[in-house]
Here is the input.
Amino acid sequence: MHVAIIGNGVSGITAARYIRKLSDHKITVISSESDYFFSRTALMYIYMGHMRLKDTQPYEDWFWSKNRIELLKDHVQEVNFSNNLLKMQTGPPVRYDKLIIAVGSSSNKFGWPGQDLDRVQGLYSLQDLQLMEQYSQGLRRAVIVGGGLIGIEMAEMLHSRHIPVTLLVREKSFWDIVMPAEESAMINRHILEHGIDLRLGTELKEIIDDGSGKACGVVTNLEEEIDCQLVGLTAGVHPNVDFLRDNQLVIQKGILVDDFLQTNIPNVFAIGDCAQMENPKPGRRPVEAIWYTGRMMGEVVAYNICGQQVPYDPGIWFNSAKFLDIEYQVYGEMPATVPEGQSTFYWEHPGGKSSIRINYETQTQHVKGFNFMGTRFRHEVCEKWIVEKTPIKEVLMNFAMANFDPEFYKEYHQNICQEYEKISGQVMTSTKSRNWNQVFEFIK
Amino acid sequence: MSESNQSMSLGNPDSTTLDLVQKIAAAIGGLGLLILLVSWVGVDLPNKGFWLIISLITISLGTTLYAYQTYLNSPEGVKNNGVWFRSLTNRGLIGWIAGIVITGFYICLYWFPQLVGLHASGNIGLVALFDPLSQLLKGVPASQWFVYGTLYTMAILIFGIKFIWKYRHNRYQVIRTISVMFFQTFFAYLIPEIIESLNTSTNINWFDKDLKNMWPLDYDFFFKWHMDNMTLAGKLGTVMLIFGLLMIFVISPILTFKFGKRWYCSWVCGCGGLAETAGDSFRHLSDKTLRAWRIERWVIHLVLLFSFVMTIAVIYSYLGNDPNQYYLTRSGFTILTTALLLASAGAYLFFQRKQKDQQKNTTYIILGAVLFILGLYLVNYFSGSGSAYFFNSEKLKSWYGFYIGAIFSGIIGVGFYPILGSRVWCRFGCPMAALLGIQQKLFSRFRITTNGSQCISCGNCSTYCEMGIDVRSYAQKGQNIVRASCVGCGICAAVCPRGVLRLENGSIDLYEKTDDLHNIQVPKSSSS
Ligand SMILES: Cc1cc2nc3c(=O)[nH]c(=O)nc-3n(C[C@H](O)[C@H](O)[C@H](O)COP(=O)(O)OP(=O)(O)OC[C@H]3O[C@@H](n4cnc5c(N)ncnc54)[C@H](O)[C@@H]3O)c2cc1C
Ligand code: SF4
Ligand code: SF4
Here is the structure.
């Protein structure tokens, strides 16, 4: 059987690796972006000089032939689902028995005047990175539009090269559609501490043409003009599925898939950023454009292709990011505002660069989720607390156990417990310490 | 158009152009280096003590001021901007020049000390500049090794300060660096020199007084002259001898069991100390390929075998057969070492049996090596020849000293920092690291745990692992990292942008450390 995979991102490659583990099928991975799989999340580090492209490739070049995974660098122009054929841009058509579509996302553009000028770009692909490198020559100021994860990464990248950056954020506070007010305020402070020109409550109105088709500035909704030679558009992404529309495939926002990641066409599957779940699990969104879900889907689709029926169940939500120097980890559902029937407990270090937040059901006291800023906590432990509906008091008494900061870091669980005592009037004793043996016994 | 709200990108690390303070700092440091250079090429400076102090102070001041300006003017955090862009740190022209200069310096030290000014009739040049300090500390003129020791210690101190500022948000790094600075300054440098100076009797010859320097890194510990000098030196020598043996056979295995080999390699050792401080800028240059790992395992274990064979041969050669004359006779020694070898092999098999990721090939190779040594030994013993093997122990000794002691640990180990990374010696050549590594892999509580599924495969950990471990290959599977070569520097955990790695000691899962504990994805068996 020949399995063709369009896309060599994390989801396509994970699928290929697992299919190889489970079977002897012929596997072809097609991508027009890069010769080898690289970590998209590490794009920023290439620009910042932390790594070379090579260092962001998780597998050495010999890995692919050794595992008989054929790599094809070409662009799929059209899929002929009736004849199981892929029409390629340069090479001959490729016939498949089963097809996995893992084509990822594209950057959003919201119809801003001037959005298609030169020196206006998003940041998604290797080609975008090359463009950014090219535009950085002699760059005096860049304007980044969009207060999300890629926006702040792009700002950090330019900042690392001493290029002045203005960051336009539509919201009143950075990423406050996702982050609760305190955490969001912490990020605002940190952006400013780095000397990045953060403009909250400011939107892009139009991009100015310098007369030769290149951007030379922007106008904001406050009618201010800002001179710049690069405009970064980072207002989110959408599934990269336009080339598949108007065909037999059912596509809404993304390619619609069932619990087994199968599309409406029996031998065609879709995974990663471009897939849209027909029946997302409670609390989960139909399209989740993150690394971790792509990786999980890649493994699940491999089982389903190799004859084991395994439904996709991503489990408890988790994610992580880094805002300049402040790390962020989230476990469970942590919306920006506390949901009905839930309470929140927040503790912030006096230095203002780290904090913890726990949401819990007011009635039962069961913890629902955790936000961590500037401190690391252990995934499995937090997840287990949520799954087992542990009351917040018990969680806090054992809190040190989940701490994942390096050895010798100051521990604050006493202060955290005291804070909770003050609020709740309950007396607490910390019982666990930061010790692997205890963690192991707990999560085993 | 408005240019208001200028973003202030000042003081970010690794600015492409130097700011004023950095320029001043570079000038100050350059002055100190110039003094060294001027005296090296033979300018006979008057009042050497004064110029030496000026030189050492300006070098230290220049370097630390530069580091201060580079790191302390920006918020705490990972500071790797531009590492792959700079000529010094991306194997560019400046990197090669630096490598050649350091290599040249080592060649002079080992084989042409007269080129740096060593003369029995009275030092000149660079060595002479250090005479006053040597007179002060131990009452004799300087040797090229005194010059080297002083510069080495200074490098660990000033680059240690730089490192502490660079990683000031990370207490593990700060405390660890204070530790290597402390052990180098006191144990390796000051205490031995001072003990030396207290020794007034002239008939006592030199022996190693660095308590932390142990066999097999200190490969001449068991040499005849060294043993003689220790035993002739009365109480102090006896204490050093007993402590040396305790270190090898008791203290170091216990500490390695409890904390992993990091207690030595990245907290105490002088070679490690230099790699972690002066070598920090080159850590990303280590080779991460599987091929390099294969070569590493062969080379480092062969060096261990070599040092072992050489030491046995040397000891054997100076022991006698008469029980009345020797505490330990040749037959006694043969029985002792045979027992030790068999016990080690037995222990290896015992612990290896419980490991989940058994490596049959390694087991065969190790057992083969042990049998090989024993076979040689026995054949020789019964044939009654005077050496432990058919070859001459003196030859072995000089080969080891030349190829391993000088070329590998000095020239390649330090001279090639800017080309091969800072831990080439520790990774490929150090017999001590090999020995501690076997212990670490087999029975240590140490491992690096991964934070569930949080890895984004970015590669920072692997890139900045000075030992060339592909940390990511474990982290992205959610698997603990248990590697013989890991020196526990903790940099992989420090640079990880997603908080995935943590260095940890734990006894509860000693033999399951390498299990796929948190297999990220769906259960393998689920089917319907
Ligand atoms: C800068 C940046 C930082 C990020 N950071 C994080 C993070 O920290 N954490 C996190 O969880 N997520 C992060 N993400 C999101 C994450 O990278 C994506 O969710 C993930 O890479 C998606 O993987 P995928 O395999 O679905 O698609 P992709 O990685 O996009 O792979 C799709 C591939 O298919 C190719 N392709 C598409 N169409 C065709 C065609 N017609 N023919 C041939 N090839 C085609 C594309 O060129 C591409 O190579 C980040 C994304 C970006 C851009
Ligand atoms: S694995 Fe991590 S702790 Fe071990 S040597 Fe490499 S960087 Fe240091
Ligand atoms: S462990 Fe951390 S540094 Fe290493 S690849 Fe994963 S996310 Fe990156």
